[in-house]
Amino acid sequence: MFLQLFSLPLVAFSSKKAAILCLHDIGGKGKYALKTREFQKLIKKIVQGKKKNLWQVLSFRDWLQSKEKKPTIVLTFDDGYLSLKKKVWPTLKKYNLGATFYIYLNRYQKNSEFYSFLRELPNQIEVGSHSLSHSDLSKPKQDSVQFYRELLFSRLELENRIGKPVVSFAWPYGSYSESRKKAAMAAGYLWQVSTDSKIEVFRPKKQIYARFTLNRGKALKQFSEIVNKLLSSSFAKLPEGSSTRTN
After folding, report:
1. What is the pTM of this model?
2. Contact between 11 and 233 (Cβ < 8 Å)
3. Domain of 130?
4. How far apart are CA 40 and CA 44, in angstroms?
């Protein structure tokens, strides 16, 4: 189901681009919770493309810091479901894939074993903040104590609980504004993600990047459409004999 590109080593990448995927629970209920089998099929497709050298798979932070222009799949998982520990991480570990886990702090008590799990993850897994309470941050006043607790306190306390730097922030519900983006920067975040559904191009001074949200029962089709966009936009010139057909 991938864009077919041949003689890839002969083609120059036009720029550093990524398809940043937003996933949530695995095996649970709701329109954003992928079925376990659906998730496993998705990962197999991602691994197949990686083996064919169509793309690399990195955390959000590692993509931003990478010097390679190879097309990139960035896996992000929002909300901190227990399936991260039981299903997601074992699968990522098996295939040596990077990813970013966005956690909202109030989901678990401070002494929860879940934070021990996050603390022990290797560097290929980034842990980012998804706010304190997963509130819609377009609603509280920007100069309110609540707003800054959602941004600043969530970062500082998450760092304290996992013993690692927290450098990126995922806006709950994708709700943000230009002024609130600047407030997140002031709270110490280097980068942010939304849910604006587009292929992203790295820019040195860019702070916020869009993600594609995958839905239950539709994720495989969505992924095929997304990677076709990623690959067709990532090459300065397609080689002779190339095709953009899916199979």
Report:
1. 0.89
2. no
3. 15-232
4. 6
